Amino acid sequence: MKESSIPQKFLRKSPPKIPHLSEPEIVRYYTNFSRMNFSVDTHFYPLGSCTMKYNPKINEEIANLKGWTELHPYQPIETLQGAMEVLYLAERYLSEITGMHSFTLQPAAGAHGELTGMLIAKAYFKEKGMEHKKVVLIPDTAHGTNPASAVLAGFTVKNIDTEGKGVITPEVLKKYITEETACLMITNPNTLGLFERYIEDISKILKENSCLLYCDGANMNALCGKTRPGDWGVDILHLNLHKTFSTPHGGGGPG
Questions:
Q1: From CA 116, how far away is CA 122, in angstroms rounded?
Q2: Neighbours of 173 (CB within 10 A)
Q3: Which of 77, 109, 168, 173 is buried most, with the most CB atoms less than 10 Å from its CB?
Q4: Would you say 244 and 217 are in contact if contact means Cβ atoms under 8 Å apart?
């Protein structure tokens, strides 16, 4: 395009002020800039329960295999069988490890898994004709995203004060249960790092009051191979696979 064909108001009166730097200067700048990030390669990684795991580099490479990264929703179904088998086995393994009946792999992240679980609870009470159950109990030791997930699903949140004990006791729980109580959202081990030792009693009390027990699986690798949430009477559970099962962290999902 000739300069004369460009309207004068779009033409610069002087050259742009672009810095002129050598290639080594650019490389040094971005290399030093990258070192300001926290990562497991250079620092202790300060991100909640995500700190409690480590992803070997080989697992990052597996997640980048073309059999995953180049899948397309419209490709012939016969070419997807390998990926479908891995997904099926993952669902079965997760169910066995946690003692749950089945898992959905659809949620794209941990918080999305929470929301999915709470929407399942919502649908459950609607199906049972118990739509008056609108209150979700959340202890002061629970995972911080729990209240947001409950509210987004249409519930009202009630905070449980563990009264300095660090865990929920049956006596404390009974103070908070009413006809409107729908669910207790609990993290186990909780965010203080304590195992909720009254979990079976808590589950029994909830069942007696037609309530559900939701477990946030953020700290599942403290339990993996030792005990199973399904055996405590947990009704709904989500897992953060990047925390316990070494999927890459930071790219979203799955949860």
A1: 10
A2: 22
A3: 168
A4: yes
Report the C-alpha gap between 40 and 28 in whole angstroms: 21
Alpha-carbon distance of 161 to 211, in angstroms, equals 19
The pLDDT tens digits for 15-57 are 888 888 999 999 999 999 888 876 666 666 555 555 456 667 7
How far is it, in rounded angstroms, from Cα 221 to Cα 198? 20
Token pair, residue 67, equals 């059999």
- Determine contact, residues 115/163, Cβ cutoff 8 Å: no
Q: DSSP letters of 62-130?
A: HHT-HHHHT--TTS-GGGGHHHHHHHHHHHHHHHHHHT-S------SSHHHHHHHHHHHHHHHHHHTT-
Q: What residue type is assigned to position 37 of the chain?
A: N
List all residues 6 or more positions away from 192 whose beta carbon is below 8 Å from its beta carbon: 141, 166
Per DSSP bridges, beta strands 135-139 and 181-187 are parallel
Give, as one character, the DSSP assignment of residue 60.
H
Q: Show the beta-strand stretches assigned E in the chain.
A: 135-139, 156-160, 181-187, 212-217, 236-239
- 10 Å CB burial of residue 91 (0-12, 13-18, 19+) is middle
Q: What is the pLDDT of residues 214-254, one digit of tens each?
A: 999 888 888 989 999 999 999 999 998 777 777 665 544 45
Q: Number of helices and strands (H, E) in the chain?
A: 10, 5
The strand order across the sheet containing 181-187 reads: 156-160, 135-139, 181-187, 212-217, 236-239
Structure tokens at 7: 């309207």
